Amino acid sequence: MNLELRYLPAFRAVCETGSLRAAAAVMHRTEQAVSYQLKRLEERLGTTLFDRGVGRLVPNARGKRLLDFCRDMHRDWSRVLDELDDPADRDTLLRIAAVSGFGRYVLLPMFRDGPLAEVALRMHYPAAPQVMRSVADGTADLGFVHCPQPSGSLACEVITEEELVLVAPAGVNPSPLEQLPAQSFVTYDESDYVFATWFAQVSGTATPILRCTAHFEELEEVLEWVADGRGLSIVPADCAAAAVADAKLALLRWPGRRCSNAIYAVRDPAVTLPSAAETLLHLLRTREGMALSVA
């Protein structure tokens, strides 16, 4: 996807709410993530988009023009989706919403060159709350999250597990666990949950106050930053598999201390799933191990 387009939802949310904090709440992201996206958007466009004074963030003339484009694009895109979402295609088109790491590194390969390669697919990667909403409002047949939100209408099933791993530049050896808070870390959207789960299981503590060198939206950027020696991070093992195989990253593990994280499939029990969805769920239930099992 064009990088500028990727950051437009954050830009529009800030315009319409007037602040980073309010936009972050609407998008179910961290304030730091929204700020990062705005900064990247302005860098890519080579211009400022807001009058940054005291109080509300107000778009300047260039920002207002971009906001008009965002609203037009959203309207046109919604119309195109309505036209594409023909009820006659429901038995063949599988619509999935999944948290980014699991969707990109586990699910997508199964459709790209795996056992579901012939299935017509529409998949997107929102944050966990939006995954739940997509299933609830019928715009996704299946959702996949690592931390389901309470819902009286949706069914959540532990469908598989992933390992969460601490990654470092290649050649780095583990230091004592108690020294980790002194290291620099690279964070990303939804890393709060991942970090908290890892520290609870591996270190037996709550997430300490960490020094953050950068925050990114995409895990690809996180892995590149870590490989360049700019900090450590904690990510799903499947995400790091290729970089470890290419000797760009190292896993830091301690004997007898692994972090296992459940992945939940989310569905509306009142809706009949497409046959491809049932096949996918079966494949995930019987998935043997994880993509990365390096000692």
Distance between the termini: 35 Å
Structural class: alpha/beta
Mean pLDDT: 85
Class of the largest domain in CATH? Alpha Beta
Q: What number of domains?
A: 2
N-to-C series of helices and strands: HHHHEEHEHEHEEEHEHEHEEH
**What is the makeup of the main sheet?**
7 strands, mixed
What shape does the CA trace take?
Answer: globular
CATH topology grouping of the largest domain: D-Maltodextrin-Binding Protein, domain 2
Query: What is the second-level CATH architecture of the largest domain?
Result: 3-Layer(aba) Sandwich
Q: Total number of helical segments? A: 11
- Stretches where pLDDT is under 50 for at least 5 consecutive residues are 289-295
How many beta-strand segments? 11
Radius of gyration: 20 Å
Percent helix range? 40-55%
Share of residues in strands: 15-25%
Walk me through the topology.
Layout: H1 3-6, H2 8-17, H3 20-27, H4 31-45, E1 50-51, E2 58-59, H5 61-84, E3 93-98, H6 100-112, E4 120-124, H7 128-136, E5 142-145, E6 155-169, E7 184-188, H8 191-203, E8 211-216, H9 219-227, E9 233-236, H10 237-245, E10 249-252, E11 259-267, H11 275-285
Parallel strand pairs: 3-4, 3-5, 7-8
Antiparallel strand pairs: 1-2, 5-11, 6-9, 6-10, 6-11
Q: What can you tell me about this protein's structure?
A:
This protein has 295 residues and is an alpha/beta fold. The protein folds into two domains: 3-83, Winged helix-like DNA-binding domain superfamily/Winged helix DNA-binding domain (Arc Repressor Mutant, subunit A); 86-290, 3-Layer(aba) Sandwich (D-Maltodextrin-Binding Protein, domain 2), CATH 3.40.190. Helix content is 42%, strand content 21%. It has helices spanning 3-6, 8-17, 20-27, 31-45, 61-84, 100-112, 128-136, 191-203, 219-227, 237-245, 275-285, and strands at 50-51, 58-59, 93-98, 120-124, 142-145, 155-169, 184-188, 211-216, 233-236, 249-252, 259-267. The strands form three sheets. Strands 3, 4, 5, 6, 9, 10 and 11 form a seven-stranded mixed beta sheet that branches. Strands 1-2 form a two-stranded antiparallel ribbon. A two-stranded parallel ribbon has the order 7-8. β7 (184-188), α8 (191-203) and β8 form a beta-alpha-beta unit. α2 (8-17) crosses α4 (31-45), α2 packs across α5 (61-84) and α3 (20-27) packs across α4. It is globular, with a radius of gyration of 20 Å. The two termini are 35 Å apart. Residues 289-295 have low confidence and may be disordered.
